[in-house]
Amino acid sequence: MPLALGSRLDSYEIVAPLGAGGMGEVYRARDTALKRDVAIKVLPEYWSRDPERLRRFEQEAQATAALNHPNVVSIFHVGQYDGSPYIVTELLQGETLRDRLRKGPMRLREVLDYGVELARGLAAAHGAGIVHRDLKPDNIWVTKDGRVKILDFGLAKLDLARTASADGATVSGQQSTPGHVLGTVGYMSPEQVRGQAADARSDIFAVGVVLYEMLTGKPAFRKATSADTMSAILNEDPSAVSQVAPSVPPGLQRVVTRCLAKNPAQRIQHASDLEFALEALSDSGSISVPATDQSLRSRWIWMVATAAVVALAAALIAWWRTPSAVPVVESITQLTDDGEPKESRIESDGARVYFNEGQARSWIIAQVSVNGGPSVPVNTGLANPQLVALERHGSQMLALVDGLDLLTSPMWSVPLPAGQPRRVGSVLAEAADVFPDGRIVFADTKDLFVCDKDGSNTKKLFSNGHGAWNPAISPDGRRIAFTTMTDDLLTLVEVAADGTDFRVLMQDACCGQWSPDGNYIVYAKHQAGDVWALPVGTGFFHRRAGPVRLTNGSLEYAEPTPSRDGKQIFAVGTKRRGELVRYDTKSHQFVPFLSGMSSTDPTFSRDGQWVAYASYPDHTIWRSRSDGSQRVQLTYPPMEAAYPSISPDGTKIAFSTIKAETYVVSADGGPPQKIVAKNSAGGHWSPDGNLLIVTCWTDGPAEERHNPYLQMYDFRTGSLSMVPGSQGLVGGAYGSDQASLVAANQAGTKLLSFDFKSQKWSDLVARDIAEWTVSPDGKYLYFTTGGPEPMAQRLRFADHQIETITSLKDLRRVLDSMEMGRTQINVAPDGSPIFTRDIGTQEIYALTVRWP
Predict the structure, then answer these.
(1) What range does the domain containing 131 cover?
(2) Which among 113, 134, 203, 768 is annotated as catalytic?
(3) pTM for this predicted structure
(4) How many domains does the chain have?
(5) Would you call 228 a catalytic residue per the annotation?
(6) Residues 6+ apart with CB under 8 A from 333
């Protein structure tokens, strides 16, 4: 579990997460005893149970503590917190050498200065009997004052005899097993690639790789695969430095070549020798300027003019080629701590942050101060509202009723801080935003529309046939960014405010929001969980550059939204983890099921001996015995899948993917067979196993788009046929026999039963339905309700009697993105309802940003 802000480890108070570092999670902390800021690296609890990771973590602490050198990060303290070991080190300001190299090759003076300090730090480590074995730009820190610090001795090899200090204290070490490869591909020495013993000369090789990259801007060894890269380290020489960077002095080229010798005996043997060689090159450099020819003095005016033009051109070229300054997240502050699931867009009026939280069909809009504090509900007067936009002056918000549970929903305008909501015309939307003049742009998942603030004068603004979601208007009101699909990927695009000038901004991205100056769009990279900023400024002095990654830590962020003043980005920070539980009717408690594994949608074979489920949050389908033994993985990345369903004979499993395709796979594994190519979800078997009921939807006209209906796939003929009268229905599962079918209406207000003999639908349950399923024995219909008092209930098919199983008010359930933010209910062979309890964290964070 991540450390909470304000928590204490001995005399250290956690201030902010800094991301991952080596094998641990790193935090900024305050040493309350010595009144100084420090960095704390904590080995996660689930890693501390791994003896090898724990050994390496302790080895890093011992190796670093054995050194006291200005070019090696200083360690202050080692301790334990809740069974997890941690190291306290100096807090470094600056950037990694990797970050610096992203800007391109370095100046010769920088290379020499950094190389000398790197060699000094290594000489100190080698002198103490420590071989780093994982030297690379990511493990080299450049402070703001230009000093180099070597980090992360997690793979270090220690010589017990030489790591004893003068007063007799020793550090323990463990030699690596011969044949075991340690290091990072691309920076390992040939002997490391072969799994042989590494000594100080292996670090010299890594320094050569780093120097090569500093001088040329290119890795010395990089191939298409790791195996090819390791083969190149063993058998190939990199391109000569002179071919890539001709201005590098021959003496420095020879130093790099000596470091990169395949045979350790032919390399520079000691880091102190490397330091001496680089210092000598640094001291000997000079530039000579030839004298001016006296015969050319009469043309000095033309020469000066020509030089000025050349200098101006060179300056423009240099300006154009020099990487632009990039935004940087300086600190991260947690604003909420209420433990509630959070979804959808975030908005801020400068004083408060607004967001959705709750469960399926029980959503509320909440608010918190921009400085953090308790979350307070917003009295919208609407049931199950979804926040979609805030008007520029902050006096009105736009919300959708049932917006998080339906594809499109009625839009309402809600006065702030209080007042009666009013319907915005007849608008049905998925998301919306507000122009500076009060007009509204909204998406219905297919097209973009614009209307007046009261919903009148609705006009279609843009359509490309690939969908439209999450529109966001630029601060000047001249452009609209939104999400669409290209090449089966969510893609961030923009159009002019009149719907013209369509441009693709970034693939594999979603839900962009503009910075207040209009120079950046902030977005979350789809399925990756980090916040990015994409430069979009226009004009001659604004160069279109690539996206900048703002976060890279242990939290997964979503819905990033810049504050009104642009100094912060508000986002939902999530640590996803679920626990499978069942409700025990005897003890009236929720107890772990299948060892409380992190998974969703368990489905059982008819005899109760087998179970299939989707792992959470990576959405991989697995099959095992009902006791968890004999596990078999059935799907693999990049496929993301959910809704597994075991056939009656237990030989096949149907499932759906995030691309809305339906597959069937053998319970013993093998390649899945696609049976419905697109626009489909779920899959429930008929009792005889010949049919699969699938929910589908259409791509028809706007008023019918995404209208769901049920189809039957016949495995005997390979054909699809529509269930009569199923327009507007979802789910589709057989009841107690093959003569009836159960489905829900799209609005989730009732469950219906279809009689195959009469070909008619009739109402079965009329109430606020969140999720439902049929028990494995076909005798009961289990379902959950929404609203402020959610319940788990079941209907007996024999007499249609409904009984309440338990309240779900205090059970925080996982919101699965594969199921459009919905929870799930399943049933164990003994009739116990099963849920996935959310044991992760999901809170609102403020990321303080320094913009260029």
Answers:
(1) 94-283
(2) 134
(3) 0.55
(4) 3
(5) no
(6) 5, 16, 372, 845, 846, 848
